[in-house]
Amino acid sequence: MGIKRQLPEFLAGKVSAEQYARWLSRKAAAHVKRDRKRDFDGAIGAAYRDAIHQAVVMSGGRDAYTGEDLHWDLLSQYDNEKSKAGRSVYKATFGLLPTVDHLDASANAVSFRICAWRTNDAKNDLSHDSFLDLCRRTLLHAGYTVAGPAISATNDAVSISSEP
Fold first, then answer.
1. Based on the structure, what is the number of domains in the chain?
2. Of residues 47, 164, 30, the one with CA closest to residue 102
């Protein structure tokens, strides 16, 4: 099988093109399955692979929410048996594992961002604005002062629409 989507330059030396293609295929398949269960007609594997690949390229290898460098070398390294034995301590070692965030999944469009597994766990099904509000409330409760961004933050995401 040939590799259609080229390995982003920032991943050279971190993962092979084959590892990346396998990860991309698995992530797209999981999101297609999820969205089809939610009656999203635009859930097509090739389109999702393209959109997720573009989100990876746009990420530059960093978490879209925290800006942290992701640990791409962790792709396909998770071991369920070790996870059962080590539980949360084992899972924590995969906190910066790159994953795909469903930024928005509406009836006619879907948007993806790349972020760390722990970030995606924290965000869960929250919208971007709801997640930022949760973070703001958490920081305020902990005694921090929270101000808006000094410069306009980018809200880049890759979207697929089922509308013509």
1. 1
2. 30
* DSSP secondary structure letter of residue 14: T
User: Are the CB atoms for 25 and 9 separated by under 8 Å?
Assistant: no
Using the CB atoms, write b or e for 53-76: b if 16+ within 10 Å.
Answer: bbbbbbbebbbbbeeeebbbebbe
Amino acid letter, residue 19:
Q
Residues 76-120: tens digit of each pLDDT: 898 889 988 988 899 899 999 999 998 765 556 678 999 999 999
Pairing of strands 98-105, 158-161: unpaired
Q: Are 96 and 117 in contact (CB under 8 A)?
A: yes
pTM over 0.90? The answer is no
Asked whether residue 98 is assigned to any structural domain, the reply reads: yes
Contact between 24 and 52 under an 8 Å Cβ cutoff? The reply is yes
71, 97, 145 from 68: Cα distances, Å: 9, 11, 22
Residue 43's alpha-carbon distances to 51, 116, 164, in angstroms, are: 11, 23, 14
| Domain extent for 91 | 9-125+156-161
